[in-house]
Amino acid sequence: MRRLSFLLRPGWLALMLVIIAFTYLCFMVLAPWQLGKNTKTSRANSQIQQSISTPPVPLKELLPQQDSSASNAEWRRVTATGHYLADVQVLARLRVVEGEQAFEVLAPFVVDGGPTVLVNRGYVRPEAGSHVPQFPRPPEQTVTITARLRDSEPTMPDKEPFTRDGFLQVYSISTEQVSKLTGVPLAGSYLQLVEDQPGGLGVIGLPHLDPGPFLSYGIQWISFGILAPIGLAYFTYAEIRARRREKQATVTEEPAPPVTVEDKLADRYGRRR
C-alpha cells in the first residue's frame, strides 16, 4: 500500500479526475455527437440518392391528412394539384444559396382533396440594405406542381419574426411557426419546388452527396477515450517502478556496521580453533 500512497497526492488525484472526465466526455458526449451527425448525413444522402432515381408520387400518398408529416420520405419527389394562397407569402431570410445570401419565398398551397402545405417557391436575391426585391406572385388558378418533400426546420427562439418591405420574415422554415403567424393550417412537412414549376422562382438545388468527416471524428474520440486511461495506467506503473528502484538503490548503498573488538577477537580465536 505504501507504494501506491503517491496516488493520494493532490497532483495525482487531479490528474486522475481529469482523465476520468475526459474519458467520460469521449464515450458519452463527443463520440456519440459525431457518430449521430454521420448517421443523419448518411440518411440524408441515401434519401437524396433514392429521390433522384424514383419517379414522383401523388402528395396525398405521403401526406394524407392535414397534420401529416413524412420525415422518412424527405427529398422524395411528389406531385400535387391545387392552388396557391397568393396573398399569404412569407420570406425566410438570411439563407445561403450557391454561396450567396438569399430570401426563400414561402406560400401555402391548398391541395385538391388533401392538406394545405407550405411551398418553398425558390429564392430571390436581396437588394442593397437587405431589402426585398420585386418578384412575381404565384398563380391564383388551379395548377399542378412537382416538388420535393422537406422536413420542417426548428424555430430559432432568439430570432423573432418581423415585417419589412410588406413581407413577414422568419429565420427558419418551420411549418408550425408559419402556421401560427399566418393563421393557415399547414401540414408538418413542406414542399420545395423543382425546376420549371408554376409559381417557381430561383431553383434551390440538391445538396452535395458528401458523407463528411463525422465518422472518422467519432472513431478518433473513441480512440482518445481508450488511450487516456491506458496512458494513466502506464504512467502509474512507471512511477511505481521508479520508486522501487530508488528504494533498492538506497538499501544497496547503506554502509556496513562498524567492526567491534569482540568481533575481531572472535574472528581471531575462531580461526585458531
From TrEMBL:
It is a multi-pass membrane protein. The chain crosses the membrane at residues 12-33, 214-237. Keywords: Cell membrane, Membrane, Transmembrane, Transmembrane helix. The keyword Cell division does not apply. It holds the Pfam family SURF1. One of its GO terms (cellular component) is plasma membrane. Residues 261-273 have a biased composition (Basic and acidic residues). It comes from the Bacteria. InterPro entries: Surf1/Shy1, Surf1/Surf4. Its main location: membrane. Residues 246-273 are annotated as: Disordered. Signal peptide: none annotated. It is found in: Cell membrane; Membrane. Belongs to the SURF1 family. This is SURF1-like protein. It comes from Mycobacterium intermedium.
